[in-house]
Queue: 2 jobs
Job 1
Amino acid sequence: MLTIYSDDHRLHHGAAEFYRGRLVPCFEMPARADQVLAAVRAAGLGAVVPPDRFDRTALTRVHTDDYVAFLESAWDEWAAQGETGDALPYAWPAVDLRRDTPPQHIDGKLGFYAIDAAVPITAGTWTAARSSADCALTGARHIAGGGHSAFALCRPPGHHAGARAMGGFCYLNNAAIAAQYLRDHGAARVAVLDVDYHHGNGTQTIFYDRGDVLFASLHGDPMVEYPFFLGHADERGSGAGLGANRNFPLPWGTTGDAYLAALDAAIADIAAFAPDSLVVSLGVDTFVEDPISHFKLVAADFTAIGRRIATLGAPTLFVLEGGYAVADIGGNVAAVLTGFADG
Ligand code: SP5
Ligand code: ZN
């Protein structure tokens, strides 16, 4: 399996995020990608190549132009105020506030284009996010060209980023950008399967009213888990997309057996949709020892996830999302990919 990776991810290294009422070191850190790269190499999965550079228009197929422009200039606007630490939002257009008047000041823009505060912007964040999307796009290009599978080793992750908002460590929605690229290059139907512990709210909203991209997600129940305000089972899509959105919220403490049963249901939905290609938002924060999550999957469960995905027989692009047990993230990702390759 081809892996696409860029060292540019190192340029994004946020200092701190809010956690239980205080600032703590970011769970989403460069060592994550280093561990995954080492494990992919150790597993002998195949070649590791750098990403191609894609036009900005590949990004604005799923993100709004003003949002991409915000990401491009946010650090410079922040630094122009004399700030040297990370840019973080602190005020949002939540209930009863106006969304039709984008602020001019960077402090206002940060909140206008964010769903939470877990998105530090540093001097290198834009370069890293753009390279991360390029990794996903390069993988999509490989699949569109007839490749059987690819692994985009993306960092920062993407599935919480919506058309015009960052959130949950995510800036550009790598999986959605890749799925749209596949649609634009020969695939009539694309399925996105999201196995990250958290609901892929950004991917869901981007494709919610479309029947050409199926979104299926297994995740911690939003009644008790981030992102809290999306990801319920009754969200089935709208308009032409009605029936093309499937959520499988699962309780804290979910073990491999229950997880794999829900995965079988999601895979049955995907098989019925008969996609021309599949994008997997691959988070391994479902791991029992993940520091911010509450599922109980173990290494053998990750192998089983890969095997089950392989039964679909679709050209498949894996896109890295979450996973914060740094010592184990590599082994768990490699387990999914080898399970798929051997399946
Ligand atoms: C890509 C991805 O996995 N993003 C995850 C973003 C999660 N941000 C919120 C984390 C809050 C952690 N609170 C957990 C409490 C555990 N006791
Ligand atoms: Zn996650």
Job 2
Amino acid sequence: MTIRVGVIGTGLIGTDHANKLVNVINGSTVSAVTDVNRARAEQVAAELGPDVGVFDNGHDLIASDVVDAVLICSIGETHAEYTLASIAAGKPVMCEKPLAPTTPECEAILEAEVRHGKRLVIVGFMRRYDPGYRQVKATLDAGTIGAALILHNVHRNATVPESFTSFMTMTDSMIHEIDTTRWLLGEEITSVQVAPPKRTSRAFPHLQDPQFALFGMESGVLSTSEFFANCQYGYDVRCELVGELGTASLVNPVVASTTTGGQDVDAVPPDWRVRFGPAYTAELQAWITGLRRGEIVGPSAWDGYAATRVTEFGVQAVRSGERVAIDYIEKPAIYR
Ligand code: NAD
Ligand code: ISE
């Protein structure tokens, strides 16, 4: 059985995912695309193949008989509307991060999925599929480094557009560390504090860059998180988990290495598409393989809700500089 996916939003990541679903992933095709920028959707459809329909809007695409599953890659503000419509149509849906920018929207999605009676939604937290992060988690779970004490995260982008704000540090970028921290440690984040370091001269005046956050966990483990939006030199994601008996760390994948003039020089990936390319592929393949078996495989709507909840308190912490405590609604049974 081939899963026919409808893609909402044919920008950067929508185009990448659609290409993979057609050319790389086993068991899927793209039957429909839509974007408010219709010319862009038409161009992407033409590149994907002759049988890809271009729809006027996301709701028509979700309702269409040619769509078995929905992939939402439009801007975050549209995610709740399209995720709720997919649940109402009874169709599986993968929503890029964030599940939604606000917790009331995420709670509406949880309620709709609970009313539906079984899971339909997964969220695009692709780092859970990165081989390095998986190895760190396997090492912790095997007990090799003993109990976790501290998690250190670093997330650097070469540059960001001028529209990037100090709050997007939390809602757009650190949301990845928030998810990996919850997933690696297997517990919720219960507090956040933000301490802005000295600013780089290479950022726009409105942007606090870099940014530094401290997340407290239920068990007392602390997780540090540096986000540097304009580090200049490339895309760099690091993680070190400190345990009672040792540490487990990501080793950056070497994209290319040059030896000359008495030096070994390793290339740094330019952006997230290169660094996490294999993780995006693994994430999509796991989703499609699950759907072909009648299963929903991937981070849940609860994971999406919890991450957004932390970013909301994170934005408060950016404003106040104070340590902010985080609470959650009760986790519904289908997510336990
Ligand atoms: P983008 O700006 O390149 O693409 C977004 C697209 O959505 C645009 O083409 C825009 O025209 C379209 N759009 C806007 N409103 C729409 C609507 N109502 N209906 C249909 N289309 C609409 O942005 P992007 O970088 O591709 O990001 C898209 C989403 O993916 C964001 O939520 C972003 O956070 C997420 N993202 C995730 C990762 C990751 O690592 N998992 C990486 C990049 C982006
Ligand atoms: C972008 O939206 C992503 O999700 C990337 O993974 C992240 O590295 C980047 O900072 C975000 O802007």
